Amino acid sequence: CYSVMASPAFEADEVVGCVVIVVDVTEKEQRDRLRREFTSNVSHELKTPLTTIYGVSDMMAEGIVKPNDVKSFGKNIREESGRMIQLIDDIIQLSRLDEDAPLDDELPVDLFDTAHDVIDRLRDHAKERGISLYLDGESSVITGSPALCDEIIYNLCENAIKYNKENGSVTITVHDLREGTELIVEDTGIGIPYEYRNRVFERFFRVDKSHSQVVDGTGLGLSIVKHAVARMGGTIEVDSVEGAGTKMIIRFPRK
Ligand code: ADP
């Protein structure tokens, strides 16, 4: 996509040439399109829970809710406002990651310890779903933000539990390699169709919207993970077989 500006060049009132400036605005166009899409997605995602909250509270205010139903109406409001809080938290996190400023808490972080900590926190949640969690590999230290490292591993592990099957498992492996640190979060879940393996990192993209409505989430988790990994100089890639499981592979080169 190009923007063209042309202006004639004169010499003693005679046109002797023409100055043409051609600017490649593809990137800007793309950025503008993504921004527009983002705003429209955010509005839609916020409006859905708000509409429910409005409807439910309206009925309560009009006094047409039976006393027996008050509790379930209250739960409905709590759930929908919880979704909104999660969504707003994710948006704030994404906009922080979009800034170019250097991370303000760069420290040595052992990803094996971080993964151990995340597994401890998610073990009960996984158990409720009949999922076993495992940790494999060895210590490996990178320079980065401890909070972001935690968020990356937590998000990936949470997804690996969420999109798993009954009695499935999640294994986090940390390898300390000569070229850097490799972190793999592998699950035995529903997998990601090949054609969507890159799209899952897009903001608000969810593979199966109907299934996703049952499964909690904002569609922003992997986008946050990808940004956070990039901010610390790493890369993320997906290896998945539909119906069999997913591997998220993160690599941080040695600095
Ligand atoms: P969310 O989980 O909130 O929907 P994410 O950005 O974390 O959003 O993930 C985007 C989509 O990628 C999910 O909706 C899901 O369809 C797919 N996905 C992510 N992780 C996995 C996984 N481990 N197995 C299968 N599908 C996954």
TrEMBL record:
Annotated compartments: Membrane
Q: Enumerate the spans annotated as Histidine kinase domain.
A: 41-255
Return the protein name: histidine kinase
Q: Complete protein: which residues are present?
A: 297 to 551 of 551
